[in-house]
Structure formats: structure tokens, C-alpha cells
Amino acid sequence: MSAVADPRISALPLPDREDVPEGVRRLWDRSLEVFGFVPNVFVAQAYNGEQFQAWWSYFNLLVNKEGYLTNAERELLAVVVSGLNRCTYCTVSHGAALRHHTQDPVTADLVAVSWRQAALPEREAALAAYAEKLTLWPADVTPADLEPLRAVGLDDHQILEAVQVIGMFNMTNRVSTALGMVPNPEYHAQDREHRARG
User: Fold this and answer.
1) 78, 124, 127, 131 from 147: Cα distances, Å
2) For the segment 23-54, what is each residue's pLDDT rounded down to a tens digit?
3) Can you give the pLDDT at residue 119?
4) Residue 192 confidence (pLDDT) above 90
5) N or C: which end of the chain has fewer CB within 10 A?
6) Confidence class for position 3, pLDDT limits 50, 70, 90
7) Is residue 122 exposed (0-12), middle (13-18) or buried (19+ Cβ within 10 Å)?
8) How far apart are CA 149 and CA 123, in angstroms?
9) Looking at beta carbons, which pairs linking 96-100 to residues 24 or more positions away fall under 8 Å?
10) What's the burial of 114, exposed, middle or buried (CB within 10 Å: 0-12/13-18/19+)?
11) Structural domains of the chain sorted by starting position, each given as residue range(s) with its CATH number in brackets
12) pLDDT tens digits for 116-135?
């Protein structure tokens, strides 16, 4: 399986393996080993290799490493924001991650389209509502909007991480949309064999 992606995945040229920093090549190789494919975002954004590595370092720390929120909560925020922004790449790829962490394909699909129809628990609904406001109406956000998060038990570390994840995905959505990034086909089928939570 090649690390070179389909050239139609981005509006900009894609780098060849020899044109990217060693750290990017290691990430491509590790992705092939773990996932069986290289995420298209890892190829499209690597056209500017050093900038990609800086973005990936923060993104990976914020979204994939152990943090203050659960993996499922961070992926919930990713899918809510990406769905609201109509970012195809991020909605599909992080929808797959949300299915993985929740083992619930039905809720993950509903969240991607309209989180209010997903019958989310109170804490998750508060996170989704805050993500929606910060994404769609950032000029209207005030410190008072944090109170519903506190009311469902989120502490200040968790609130700050939620804000950072929401901000990260609003930025990443815009990059992915501007470049016309296409999700890897593998994302569509991942973790769909589970049942919806009752």
C-alpha cells in the first residue's frame, strides 16, 4: 500500500515522499502500520512540511493524547463543529473516530447532521450547544456561556480544553474545505458494526 495519495484529494499539489521532512515520512509509515492507510490530510497538508508538523503536534496533543475530556467528548466536539461548518473531510473522518470511541454508529451519524436529534446526555448536549454557539456566532459568546458547562460538572481544565478543541476544528475545517480535501474511503466503513446505545 502506497503512502502517495490520490492526486484528486486536494486543490494543491501533493508532495512526494522525498520532498517531505523525515518526521512526516515516519508519520506516514506509522499510519500505514496502524490504520492500513495514510489519512489524506497527512499528505495534503504536508506540502508545507514544517508547518504541517507544527499543526500535527498541537492537534495530536489536543485530540489524541490523554487530556481533561474523554476521547469521546473531544470527538463529539469535532463532529459537531465539522458538521456545522459542512467540512466533509473532518465530519467523515471524525465521525469514524466518534463511532470508535462510543461504539454507537447511529448517534455519531445523527451528531454529524443535527446533534439535537441525537438524544445526547446532559453533559454532552451542553458541550454540543457551546460548540455550536462558538462556531456559528463567535461574536455573541460571553463568559456567561460557560455557566451551562459548569452546571453539568465540567471543571475549568475541561472547559479550556473544550474551547481549544472547538477552536482547533474551526481552523482545521477551513483549511480542509479551502483545499477541497476528500476523506479516505476507509473512514466510511469504520466501526459501523456496533449497536446504538440505549
Assistant:
1) 21, 14, 11, 14
2) 999 999 999 999 999 999 999 999 999 999 99
3) 95
4) no
5) C
6) very low
7) exposed
8) 7
9) 96/187, 96/188, 96/190, 96/191, 97/71, 98/72, 99/190, 99/191, 99/192, 99/194, 100/190, 100/191
10) exposed
11) 17-64 (1.20.5.810), 71-189 (1.20.1290.10)
12) 999 999 999 999 999 999 99
First to last CA, the chain: 39
Nine-digit cell string for 75: 470527538
197 residue type, one letter: R
For residues 3 and 9, give the distance between their C-alpha atoms in angstroms, rounded to a whole number: 13
